[in-house]
Amino acid sequence: MKRITLDKLTGKLEKASYQTQYDHIMSLIREGRIKPVAASGKNGKKPALYLEYWITEPEEEQKERLERLRLLKEELEYGLSPAIGIDYYVSHPEVYEAERSWVLMMDRYLKNCREKLRTEESMNERSFEIWGREKFLKEEQGKTVCRHMGISMEMLNIYDTSEPLAYYSHTKKVPQNLLIIENKDTFYTMRRHLISGGGPIFGLETGTLIYGAGKQILRSFRDFSLCMEPYITNSGNKIYYFGDLDYEGISIYEDLCGRFGREWVIEPFKAAYIAMTEKVLNTLTVQDSLDSGLCSLPGMKEKQSRRGGDLFFGYFEAAEQEKMKAVLLAGKYIPQECLTISDLPMRPGDYDGT
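Above: the chain sequence. Below: its structure as tokens.
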């Protein structure tokens, strides 16, 4: 027998009076279609109703259901590819019944096309190849079904595609300095600076600016060596990172190094971090004491992980570290947008808006 709540039984009578709902439930009980679950307790109303009920089945329907479950169990134990785990479905036959069509598609694929798993494919490509739905894994119930089958994403040999890196190259000379910028406004400001004939960015002769788009850089940078022009991926180039001064920005930098550090050395853009820290703290100390002045900075987003930071801060002198850490310990942050084009040293030449 299946269990059902009072709310579901009266769902279609939601706008009806309570007496009408009560009469409906009592009618179902008299007809033998439901039985109260005594342990579920009552709803506290008058007249009272139990909170849960057993749905009773006619004997013939019960026999049909049991036979159907027997056949499903037999299929699970003897009909599927050994690569498909059956433990979850044996314990939850009703879930297998609901997901059976997807499981059988996976079964056919494993039996007839398993050699295709040797070639890495994108998530959407593999999804369409197996289930005929390109978004089944990424946006639909595909990952849940795979978890129930004991099929890992590693076994499917897939990769998740990312948006292509957006960048602006001021020169194709090599070697050159590449600067990854976390936020869009700062990327456009520094791009504008270079286009207008401005000088080095805080002392750094910059050949190419790369828009990081926050955490997206952790995905998009995976294709850096494969998709970028040879002058950008030249082994003699140096890569710098510049983002917000907060735990999330520092975490993005350190995660980037952790994932790609074997192939590329990526350093924090020290001069820019120092410039924005000095700009903000100098303004605050002119207006007020440092401690009370920090209160005027924007508060850090909630639930930011405070892990790490050693790699990032290791590039800075003790006095520089102290100033930046004071901001973080106060629960504040400095957005890189605090630096405007006015803070960048300019060479003669007007920006034409392109």
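Residues 348-354 have pLDDT under 50 and may be disordered.
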